[in-house]
Amino acid sequence: MHLNSEEKAEIFEKYGKSKTDTGSPEAQIALFSVRIAHLTEHLKSNHKDYTTARALKALVGKRRRLLDYLIKTDINRYRALIAKKELGIRK
């Protein structure tokens, strides 16, 4: 994977509650969004890489399920996450 532990800690600190908060839905959604953006760029130049395309679809599905969970549990946290445009989530 293209992210090292410092970059992941930075993502978790920005979107989670702390650097070590790796389990909150917001932190996981942010990490998935970074990985999705990376895989999308990879597929633009390697359009026949079907394994990566399959992994990208799986990541998008995981992120969607986490967003659905966040809608059901706390709509305010969901709206705050969607308002952050740097994640690239449209809704």
UniProtKB/TrEMBL annotation:
BP terms from Gene Ontology: translation
Judging by the UniProt lineage, the source's domain of life is Bacteria
Gene3D superfamilies linked: 6.10.250.3130, S15/NS1, RNA-binding
InterPro entries, sorted: Ribosomal_uS15, Ribosomal_uS15_bac-type, uS15_NS1_RNA-bd_sf
Keywords, alphabetical: Ribonucleoprotein, Ribosomal protein, RNA-binding, rRNA-binding
* Molecular function terms from GO: rRNA binding; structural constituent of ribosome
Q: Which Pfam families match?
A: Ribosomal_S15 (PF00312)
Q: Which GO terms describe its cellular component?
A: cytosolic small ribosomal subunit
Does the record's keyword annotation contain Ribosomal protein?
Answer: yes
Q: Which SUPFAM superfamilies match?
A: S15/NS1 RNA-binding domain (SSF47060)
Q: What does this protein do?
A: Forms an intersubunit bridge (bridge B4) with the 23S rRNA of the 50S subunit in the ribosome.
Q: How does it assemble?
A: Part of the 30S ribosomal subunit. Forms a bridge to the 50S subunit in the 70S ribosome, contacting the 23S rRNA.
- What family does the Swiss-Prot or TrEMBL record give for this protein? Belongs to the universal ribosomal protein uS15 family.
Q: What is this protein called?
A: Small ribosomal subunit protein uS15
Organism placement in taxonomy: Bacteria, Pseudomonadati, Bacteroidota, Bacteroidia, Bacteroidales
